Description:
By secondary structure, this protein is mostly helical. It has helices at 26-33, 39-47, 51-69, 79-89, 93-110, 118-127, and strands at residues 12-15, 19-22.
Amino acid sequence: MKGKELKQAQIFQVELDRVRPLTFDFNALCELQEFYFDPFQAVAGLDAMNFKAMRAILYSSLVAGQMAEDETILFDLSVNQVGQILGSLMSDQEAFAGIFEKLAEAVQSFFPEPEVEEDEVKEEDEKN
Length: 128
């Protein structure tokens, strides 16, 4: 298998202090593990509105997005600066929600859809 045949994580653009690339890939998982021993616990924190998890996932995804878009440019925000930006955007509920919609979309695009067996589909159709 060649590198170009590997599934690449989708890059999204989010408006923070400026438009920034965001992606959720293996590098984001590794970066996230710096903040959470179990990065999947952090991902679950998105639904629970766990602010620490939200900040960590956003930071990790921004670092990974910058590396995916252009690895020659160093990421220029600290995790605390990402938190400050989020704090300043909390009064704009539409902007705040938009960031996390993109983040959730990035996370969902990274994880493969579970394969559903044909028998399971038939059983579900019969129930309905």
